[in-house]
UniProtKB/TrEMBL annotation:
One of its GO terms (biological process) is methylation. Keywords: DNA damage, DNA repair, Methyltransferase, Transferase. This is Methylated-DNA--protein-cysteine methyltransferase. The lineage of its organism: Bacteria, Bacillati, Actinomycetota, Actinomycetes, Mycobacteriales. It comes from Gordonia insulae. Its EC number is 2.1.1.63.
């Protein structure tokens, strides 16, 4: 099945270029439809629990935002990683390539977030410290809220200092479900 969506063209700098076309696919999960947008190298540009690829495209930094989206039944490796994650192999998402762009702190923080293990969430304060900026707690929260590649960059593994969930773009029930699935026990 193939369908195409055209999004507004973007201006790019000399150092980054926007993919002309990206592919997207949706995967049914226990938490709802999970959609992935990937560039021609199958690097995740955006992902999340929605069936609306245009919503996800808007999350991609304008310098790498695709001009056109093409639905595909392919992206087999990405589909398999999501399915394996939901089957209990949480490490299946670890080696998936992700492409995001932002300022220096966020670009440093996102790879750090990928080191937070399943069932071992950290606080926003600890995440800021891990990212090399112990006083940048708001920056750590921004890294989570501006993360376009949900699940692959596991922002659901960051909690408030008091252990409460905090926020999550796709809703607190999904964040809780992911944490419980990964073995985290709420008091």
């Amino acid at each position: 099945m193939t369908s195409t969506i055209t999004t507004p063209a973007t201006t790019t700098s000399a150092t980054t270029t926007s993919a002309t076309t990206a592919q997207w696919t949706s995967i049914p999960t226990p938490d709802g439809t999970f959609t992935v947008i990937a560039d021609d190298a199958e690097r995740v540009l955006a992902s999340g629990w929605t069936d609306d690829p245009e919503y996800l495209t808007a999350l991609v930094h304008r310098s790498i935002r695709p001009a056109t989206l093409a639905r595909t039944d392919g992206l087999d490796a990405l589909r398999a990683s999501v399915e394996s994650y939901y089957a209990g192999t949480f490490s299946a998402i670890d080696d998936v390539e992700v492409r995001q762009h932002s300022g220096p702190f966020l670009e440093r923080a996102w790879p750090v977030l990928r080191t937070v293990g399943p069932g071992e969430p950290v606080s926003y304060t600890a995440f800021a410290e891990m990212s090399g900026a112990p006083t940048a707690i708001r920056g750590a929260a921004a890294a989570c809220s501006r993360n376009a590649a949900a699940l692959f960059v596991p922002c659901h593994r960051v909690l408030r200092s008091d252990g409460s969930l905090g926020g999550f773009r796709y809703g607190l029930p999904i964040k809780r479900s992911l944490l419980v699935r990964e073995g985290y026990r709420f008091d």
